[in-house]
Specification:
By secondary structure, the protein is an alpha/beta fold. The chain folds into two domains: 3-58, no CATH class; 122-270 and 282-292, 3-Layer(aba) Sandwich (Rossmann fold), CATH 3.40.50.150. It is 33% helix and 17% strand. It has helices at residues 7-12, 15-35, 43-54, 101-114, 145-150, 164-173, 199-202, 220-225, 228-233, 249-259, and strands at residues 76-78, 83-88, 91-94, 135-139, 156-160, 181-184, 187-188, 196-197, 211-214, 238-242, 263-266, 288-292. The chain has a seven-stranded mixed β-sheet, sandwiched between helices. The protein has a three-stranded antiparallel β-sheet with strand order 1-2-3. A two-stranded parallel ribbon has the order 7-8. It is globular, with a radius of gyration of 20 Å. The termini are far apart. The relative contact order is 0.12.
Length: 293
């Protein structure tokens, strides 16, 4: 038994200290792994390794994140709705009722960081964007920042979120566009029952969708399995699907999408998703795939 998994160690050492120890060990393992390769595989990887040599482990191992400061984010109150919100491109983005100002600042800071132009988690780029009239299905919508950015261009939006606490906030955020926004409190998976639905079952055969954004905390594989009709038959269709949650997702999803006639590309840079306890070499993962047909 490793000392780090022993009951006594877990009792005596506070969780936040255990996390720091594991993060330092992971950083050392990554640097050691690449140092023992004949050469660094690419310039992209070299940038990350240079960062790790002088900085602690971060999900985004890049200096661009240093410009984001949570304390400077203005959080506003809506007494009528009993919710707090942050302004995003001139629109109100509401948050969970029980969240403090500080938690909202931290959350919004992370949201804006992950959609930075240099971020490996950025869904869109100059060649992959939301066009006028898109029918957007946002699966794993959470706060709704991505959908809110698309709401004025899209002709219809279907927003899936499993966390019931987000539904009140999402209804408040999208109230000005409620005639074209449908908010669904279900898991999108490979089965259909009271709490789950496949995308193939939810989207009618004659219903058109043109853009899928998928970020479901590691359940992407099951979601895609339940979307075979849409992936094979819908055209035109764009798909932005996260690949950083699991080791083989980038390879597996690229193959699946290519088999269904998509041209695929991955986001620039790498993510270091150290929350995955099964993480192993080569450690660094692409944030997402952008696919289009």
């Amino acid at each position: 038994m490793s000392i780090h998994t022993s009951p006594i160690y877990r009792i005596l050492i506070p969780k936040f200290i255990r996390k720091r120890i594991l993060a330092k060990q992971l950083r050392a393992s990554i640097l050691s792994y690449y140092a023992n390769l004949p050469e660094v595989p690419s310039e992209e990887l070299a940038v990350v390794l240079d960062y790790l040599k002088t900085n602690p482990i971060e999900v985004f191992p890049y200096h661009f994140q240093n410009q984001y400061i949570a304390d400077k984010i203005e959080v506003l109150d809506d007494p009528e709705k009993g919710l707090r919100y942050v302004m995003l491109d001139g629109k109100k983005l509401y948050f969970k009722k029980r969240w403090s100002k500080q938690r909202i600042q931290h959350s919004f800071n992370e949201l804006t960081k992950e959609q930075d132009l240099q971020s490996p988690h950025r869904y869109l780029n100059e060649n992959f964007k939301i066009d006028e009239g898109e029918v957007l299905v946002d699966i794993g919508v959470a706060e709704g920042n991505f959908a809110l950015g698309a709401v004025e261009k899209a002709s219809r939006l279907i927003l899936f979120e499993t966390d019931k606490e987000w539904i009140e906030a999402l209804n408040a955020t999208f109230e000005p566009w409620k005639d074209k926004v449908l908010i669904v409190n279900k898991f999108v998976s490979d089965i259909t029952n009271a709490t789950n639905t496949t995308l193939d079952d939810f989207i009618g055969v004659d219903e058109k969708v043109t853009f899928l954004k998928i970020d479901v905390d590691g359940a992407e594989s099951r979601l895609l399995k339940g979307s075979q009709r849409i992936l094979s038959e819908q055209k035109p269709l764009k798909v932005a699907v996260c690949t950083y949650h699991k080791q083989n997702d980038e390879k597996d999803f690229t193959e699946l999408l290519s088999q269904n006639g998509f041209q695929t590309s991955h986001s620039d840079g790498f993510m270091l998703f150290y929350y995955d306890k099964k993480m192993q070499a080569p450690y660094l993962r692409r944030g997402l795939i952008r696919a289009i047909k």
